[in-house]
Every structure is written in C-alpha cells, then in structure tokens.
Amino acid sequence: MIAYAVSKYIKIAPRKARIVADVVRNKNVDDAISILMSINKKASGLIIDTVKSAANNAKRKYPEQKYESGDMKISKIVINEGPSLTRFRAASMGRATTIKKRTSHIVVEIDVDKEKYEKRLHDTKKKTAIPKPDRLEEKSKIVKKKEKKLVAAKGSK
After folding, report:
1. 18-26 contacts: CB < 8 A, separation 24 or more?
2. Domain containing residue 105
3. Looking at the DSSP assignment, which residues form a beta bridge with residue 106?
4. pLDDT above 90 covers what percent of the chain?
5. pTM of the full predicted structure?
6. Which helix (H) or strand (E) holds 46?
7. Which end of the chain is less congested by CB atoms within 10 angstroms, N or C?
8. How many domains does the chain have?
9. What is the pLDDT of residues 63-100, one digit of tens each?
10. Among residues 43, 44, 61, 42, which one has the least CA distance to residue 3?
C-alpha cells in the first residue's frame, strides 16, 4: 500500500455498495474508473471519488516517483458499515415501526503495479529529447523572410 483514501458516513447501504466494489477490486485505477463510469448505480459515483482521491494522495505523497494513474492498481477496497439513522413510520393500529437508514465507510488502498511502472520508466528513458531551436533564431529567420518579401515587392514596382 502506498496510499489510501477513506470516505465516511456515505448515505448508501453497504450491501448495495459492495456489489459495485467487487467489480473493480484488483483492477488498474484507469480501468476501474472507466468501468465505474459505465455502471448505472449510485455507489459507482461515490467509489469513483474515493479512488481518485487515493490516486491523488499517492501522487502527492511520492512526487519524486512521478506515479501516474495507469501505474497504480486498487489493492484493497472495503465497504464497512457506518452508523444507522433511525426513522419512524406510521404502522397499523396506531403503532410506529422503525426504519434504518444505513450509512457506509468506503476504504480504498492503492498500490503500484510494478510491471507497468517499470515498463513506463524504461520506455521514457529510451526516448531521446530533441533539443528545441532557440526562439530568437526562429524569430530572426521569420523577420528576414518578411524583409526579403518587402524588398522584392518594392523592387518590382
């Protein structure tokens, strides 16, 4: 685990959120976000926010490593039960029955996918940087071309 994020007191039943969490467990962060975006459940949006937060935490915690979201995978995702809000509803014969509005705590742990990270670093080292020409030289060339055009235009008159 290199970083984690926790979302607490999310107003969704843990049973419903666990169904969505099972789909993205042990997936790459980019793949997990794209999968969650296609799932039509309330929990998917809440889990996306937590996954993005964990990925950003990893980037901030280790800026020298230059991690990208493609290099990270979800090593652990847990949906715990939070406190239940108790509400009452009228029932027959003048009674009241309790309704529990359940909440969840979402915990996402991010780890580095060593193979992808090493491959990306190796690929970036292979590329040689092409030096950019000096901007003053470029501007002087453009100015010289315009001067030649002006001289040619004046000479033809």
Report:
1. 18/79, 19/43, 20/44, 20/47, 21/47, 21/77, 21/78, 21/79, 21/106, 24/51, 24/74, 24/77, 25/74, 25/76, 25/77, 26/73, 26/74, 26/75
2. 3-156
3. 7, 79
4. 61
5. 0.73
6. helix 42-61
7. C
8. 1
9. 888 888 888 999 999 999 999 999 999 999 999 999 99
10. 61
Cα–Cα nearest to 46, from 10, 82, 84: 10
Q: What is the pLDDT of residue 85?
A: 96
pLDDT digits (tens, 9 = 90+) for 15-39: 999 999 999 999 999 999 999 999 9
Which pair of structure tokens corresponds to residue 52? 């993005």
Residue 102 Rama label (left phi>0; alpha psi -120 to 50; beta): beta
Burial (CB < 10 A; 0-12, 13-18, 19+), residue 10, is buried
For the stretch 96-119, what's the b/e string if a residue is b when 16 or more beta carbons lie within 10 angstroms of its beta carbon? eeeeeebbbbbbbbbbbbeeebee
Q: What is the DSSP string of 54-113?
A: HHHHHHHH-TTTT--GGGEEEEEEEEEE-PPEEEEEE-GGG-EEEEEE--EEEEEEEEE-
Q: How far apart are CA 17 and CA 23, in angstroms?
A: 11
Q: What is the CATH number of the domain that holds 21?
A: 3.90.470.10
